[in-house]
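REQUEST ID: PR-0412
SUBMITTED BY: lab tech R.K.
PRIORITY: routine
TASK: structure prediction, single protein chain
INPUT:
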Amino acid sequence: MRPPVPVPTLSRRAKLVIGVIAVLLVLFTVIGSLTNVYVDYLWFDETGFTEVFWTEIQTRLLLFAVVGIATGGLVALAVYLAYRFRPTFRPMSLEQQNLERYRQSVEPRRKQVLIGLAVVLGLFAGFTAQGSWETWLTFRNSTPFGTVDPQFGLDNSFFVFDYPFYRLALGFGFAIVVLALIGSLVTHYVFGGLRLQTPGQKLSSAARVQLSVLLGVFVALKAVAYWLDRYGLVYSTRGDVFTGASYTDVNALLPAKTILVFVAVICAIAFFANIVVRNFALPAAALVLLLLSSLVIGVAYPAIVQQFVVRPSADQRESDFIQRAIPSTLEAYGLSDVEYVDYATDTDGSDVDPEAALAALRDDQTTIPNARLLDPNVLSETFTARQQIRNVYGFPERLDIDRYTIDGVTQDYVVAVRELNTSGLTDNQSTWINRHTVYTHGNGFVAAPANQVVAGQEGGEPNFSGAGDLPTTGDIQVDQPRIYYGELLNDGGTDVYSVVGAPEGQTPREFDQPEGGSDEGQINRTYDGTGGVEIGSFFRQLTFAIYYRERNFILSGAVNDESRVLYVRDPLDRVEKAAPFLTVDGDPYPAVVDGKVQWILDGYTTSDAFPYAEQMELGTAAADALTGTGTTALPDDQFNYIRNSVKATVDAYDGTVTLYAWDESDPLLATYMKAFPGVIQPRENMSDELISHVRYPEDLFKLQRDVLTRYHVTDPTDFYNQNDRWQVSTDPTNQGAADGLQPPYYILAQRPGDDGATFQLTSALNAFQRDNLSAFVSASSDPATYGEIQVLRLPGNTPFRGPEQVQNSFLTNNQVRPDLTLFNSDTSNAVFGNLLTLPIGDAGLLYIEPLYVEGSGENAFPLLQKVLVNYGDRIGYGDTLSEALDQVFGAGAGTVASDNEDAATQPDAGETTAPTTTAPSGAAAPTTSAPPATGGGDVDSAVAAIQAALASLAAAQQSGDFAAVGQAQADLQAAAAAFEAAQSAAAASPTG
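STATUS: complete
OUTPUT:
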C-alpha cells in the first residue's frame, strides 16, 4: 500500500497576504455595488417610482433566495447523503489505493467543502434566476386575454404568462437533479460506493438507492417536459410560411408527445422500483424504450408524415392551420380591425385620369395646402445655423413633426428644442466647473410650419413663425423654455450630469441665455425646479464622488447645501428606468403642453409567447434607412405580440416622468399595473391638450406594415403560395443608406372617406420584388380616430409608380438632370428630401418631394430650392409647389396650394435687388453679384451665372453671413430661371 501524500499547507505570511487581498477585493466590490444601488434608489425616490425599485429588488431577492437555497441545499444534501452512507469497508484494490489520497485530502475539510459547494452553486443558480423576475411577476399577476387558442381551447394568458414560468421552473428542476446526480456519482466513486475497476459488486446498496431515486426524478421531469411540449406546438415553425401547430404537429407530433408522457412515467416508476428490485435491468430496459420511442414516434414518424403526406400537397394540408395563424398574427400585432379600401379602381391600367385628378385637386382644401416641404431628417443643420444662438446649444440629428392649432387652424410643424450640446463646448468650457455647473441646460422651443418656407433674399429657409429665437417668440406660447432634460444629454451612452442650485443671495452661475442677443453679454440664473437629487449632506457628496469617481463633489465650492444633481437626463433613458417592463419607442419628441415643454414617448408591452403568431426580431423589423440617425434602435429581441399600451411624458424642466395607460384593454398592461400598483396613471388623467399631441408611434407602425405585407392575404392557398405579397420599398432618397427601407412619414392629409384632414403616419408599399405601387397604409393620430389603420389597395394593373420608380423618373427628367449637374459641384451638393405620397380624393396618389441645395463649407446648411411632383407619368418641377402642380395638371391647378412661401419677403416681380453683404467681425465679406443678363438662347451665360451664384452661396455659408446667404439664394433662383428660359429658347430655335 502506498503511503498517503501529504496535503500542502501555506505559511502564516502567505495566508495573511491572501486574506488581506481578499478582504480588500470584497470591500471594494461591496462599496461599489452598494453605492450603485443607493444612487439608483435616490433617483427612483426623486422621480416617485420607488414602487418599481422595491418591487424589482424584492422579486429579484426572492428568486435569488428560493432558487439559490433550493439548488445549493438539495445538491449539498445529495452529496452529504452519498458521503453519509459510504461503505465502512472497501475492497483493497489499485483503484481504491489511488483514491485514498483524495479521501484523506477531503476528510479533514468535508464540512468546508460541502458548504463551499452549496454556496457556489446557490450563487450561480440565484444569479441566473433573479434575471427572470418579470417572468415570475407576470405569472403571479396574470390577467386573462378573453380569447382562446384554436388548438387547446385555453385562454391565451396561459401561453403568455403561465407557460414561460412552467418552463423556467422545469429548467431549474432539471439543473438541480443533474447537479445532484453528478455530485452523488463523484462522492460515491471517491468514497467507494461506486467501484468501476474493482472486481465484484460495482454499487453499494446506498449508492443504488440514491442513484435510482435521482434518475427516477429526472425521468419524471422528462415526462412533465413532454407534457409541456404539447403546448409548445403553438410556437412551431414547421410550417414553411406560418407559425403555429402545423398538420404534422397536430396529427403526428402531438399524439407522439402524449405517448412519450406515459412512456416516461413508466420509465420513472421502473427506476423507483429498483429501490426494492435491486436490479438495474428493468430501469435500463425502460430507459431504452424511452429513447427508442422518442426517436421513432417523436422524430422519425413526424418526419415521414411531413415528407410524404404534407409536402406533396402542402397548400391543401396546411390550409386549416394557416387559417388559424392569420387571425392570430393579426391579433397579436393589433391589426384585427384594419380598414381595406379598393382605391383608384376606375383606371384602365394604362394611364390615370388627369381630369378627375384635377377636379379632386381643386376640391381639396386640406391635403395639398398642408403638403410638407420641410424634411425634419434634413433640416437639423439649417435649424442649427439659424437658431443655435451660441455654440453651447445644439439640435438633434433628426428633428420631429407635430401639429398645433393656431387661431383655429391645425397645421403640422417641424419642431425641436434648443438643447445643451456638450460636444460643442470648447476646451475652456469643458472644465469640470463649466461642464457640470455652468453649462447645465438648453433654452427654447423652435417650430417652423412644415408647409412654409421663406422666399426672397433668404430663400428656402424654414419660417420660424411657430416659435424661435431667444427669448422665445412666436405663435406657440412657451412659458418655461429651459431644457434641463433632453436627447443630447447622453454623450455616447454616458449620462451627462449637472450640479445645480445655490443658497439664496448667491450670484447665479448657470449660463441661461445671451443678453439682448449680444455675442458677449449673458444672463445667468440658478435652477429653482424640483428635479434632481439633493446632495447637501457630506454623506451624499461622498456617495456621488465615489459613483462618478470625481473628487470635486467634495472639494469644489460649487457644491453646497442647496445643490442638486441632475442625472439620467435622456427622456428615453428616464422612461426605461422608471418602467423597465416597457420597450420604449426610439423617437421621443417635444411638445408644448400648457406652456411647458414636455417630451412625449410611446411605451410598448411585448411578449414572445402569443400562440400562432409569427415571431419577429424587434430591432430588425423596426429598422429603416434612418434608424440610428437621431433615433434609438430597438433591442433585437424575439417577440410576437406588441401593444402601444403606455404614453409617457418627461418634463424638460424638472424631469418629471408620468406614465399613462393608453391601451387599457391590453392584458399585459393590466398585469403590470397589478404588479406595480399606482405607477401608471389612468388615461382619463391626460389633459385634452396633451392628447392633441399624441402621435401614432413610428416603430410600431414599421412592425405593422411589415406584417401587413404578408397577412393582408386571407385565402390560405394564396397565403401559402405568397400570391399578392407586398414589400416595403427601399428609401430612394437616402444615399447614405441605399439598402435601408423607406421610413414612414407623418403628414396632415384627408383620407378617402374622411370629412377632413387628420394627422397620420403613412407608408407606400410595393408589389413583392417589383417596383410598382400596390398599397398605401396610414395610421391615424387624431384623438377621435387614433390607431385606425387604413390600407388603400391599388388594382393589380395599377399605373402608379412605386417610390423608386418615381425617384428614378425625377433623376432622369430633362429639366431636373441639368440642375442636378450644377447643384452637385465642388461648392455645393443636392439633397433630396422625403418623398411623400398623398392621396388625392379617389383619383389617385400624388408624390411630392423637396429638393435642397447645401454648400460644401464647414458651416453650410441645406436650403429648399425646388419642388418635384409626380402623378401617373407626369412630372412637375418648379420653384414652388403651385408651379410644379401647374406643370402636371395645367395652369391654375396650383392655386389650391398655399404657395408655401412667406410672400412678404419676396421681391416684386422683375425687380433686381442689389446684393448687400455684411461680413461678421474679423471675416472678409463674400463677393456676390447679380446674374448677368442672358439672351434667349445664351445657355453658356446662364450656366456661368449659376456657377457664380453657387460659389457665392458657399462663400457666404462658410463665413456665416446669413444676409449674404439669402442674396446668393436669390441670385441662384434667378440664374436657374434664366437657364431654363435659355434652354427653351435654344430648343425652339431652328438649326441649320
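NOTES: Residues 902-937 have pLDDT under 50 and may be disordered.
REVIEWED BY: pending
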